[in-house]
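Narrative of accomplishments. A recurring question from our advisory board has been how the design workflow behaves on a single, concrete structure rather than in aggregate. To address it, we present the structure tokens for one chain from the evaluation set, followed by the sequence designed for it. No filtering or post-editing was applied between the two.
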């Protein structure tokens, strides 16, 4: 009745629903229950956490964040309130390996040892992958970055997490730069180490893999930000696209 009182007279709706109009008005004046107030406060906190995660957190991570904040609440209650508010998270799908690992491939050494610097172009390339939120969902981004000047030399995007994404990014870099020799460094958390899946790297190249799997993006090489900046720079984008 409350939702439709602007379109229909209260007396008419009360008669059709076989309830009293006075009972409806008494309900309107009644103060919200403690449970309703508690739910409203909790939902506000849930919305804040969900917004801070840019819409990526689902019920388990929001519940964990609430507990960390000292708010002890059941998982079912969090799920119920999120469902009522239409809030949901984003499932981070695993990388899908669609290429065969060469049987003779061996793990590459860590030639970089976290020293992400180079004294000239095409000395050290770093590869990694992440995801980019968009208005229509998430796109998955693979990037090859020349550490000298922090310039993106190859990239590829897709709405699926397939290993070919990394190979496409490397192929773009090869076409763009055609270096005689370079250290190609990737993270243990990267979906693939391209030197294990494709034919041997070009002559003079050396493969390197992060020794502790610390995550290159977390070490300050924020490839996504560099790419988004390049998108707004016609010269940079043209160079990256080859």
């Amino acid at each position: 009745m409350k939702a439709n009182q602007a379109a229909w007279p209260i007396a008419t709706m009360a008669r059709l629903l076989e309830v009293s109009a006075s009972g409806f008005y008494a309900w309107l004046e009644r103060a919200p229950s403690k449970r309703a107030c508690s739910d409203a406060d909790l939902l506000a906190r849930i919305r804040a956490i969900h917004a801070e995660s840019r819409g990526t957190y689902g019920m388990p991570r929001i519940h964990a964040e609430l507990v960390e904040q000292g708010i002890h609440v059941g998982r079912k209650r969090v799920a119920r309130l999120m469902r009522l508010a239409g809030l949901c998270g984003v499932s981070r799908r695993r990388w899908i390996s669609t290429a065969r690992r060469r049987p003779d491939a061996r793990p590459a050494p860590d030639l970089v040892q976290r020293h992400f610097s180079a004294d000239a172009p095409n000395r050290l390339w770093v590869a990694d992958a992440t995801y980019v939120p968009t208005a229509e969902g998430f796109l998955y981004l693979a990037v090859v970055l020349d550490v000298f000047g922090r310039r993106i030399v190859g990239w590829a995007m897709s709405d699926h997490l397939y290993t070919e994404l990394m190979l496409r990014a490397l192929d773009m870099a090869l076409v763009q730069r055609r270096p005689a020799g370079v250290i190609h460094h990737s993270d243990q958390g990267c979906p693939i180490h391209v030197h294990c899946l494709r034919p041997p790297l070009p002559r003079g190249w050396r493969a390197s893999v992060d020794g502790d799997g610390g995550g290159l993006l977390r070490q300050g090489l924020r490839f996504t930000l560099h790419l988004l900046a390049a998108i707004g720079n016609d010269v940079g984008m043209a160079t990256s696209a080859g």
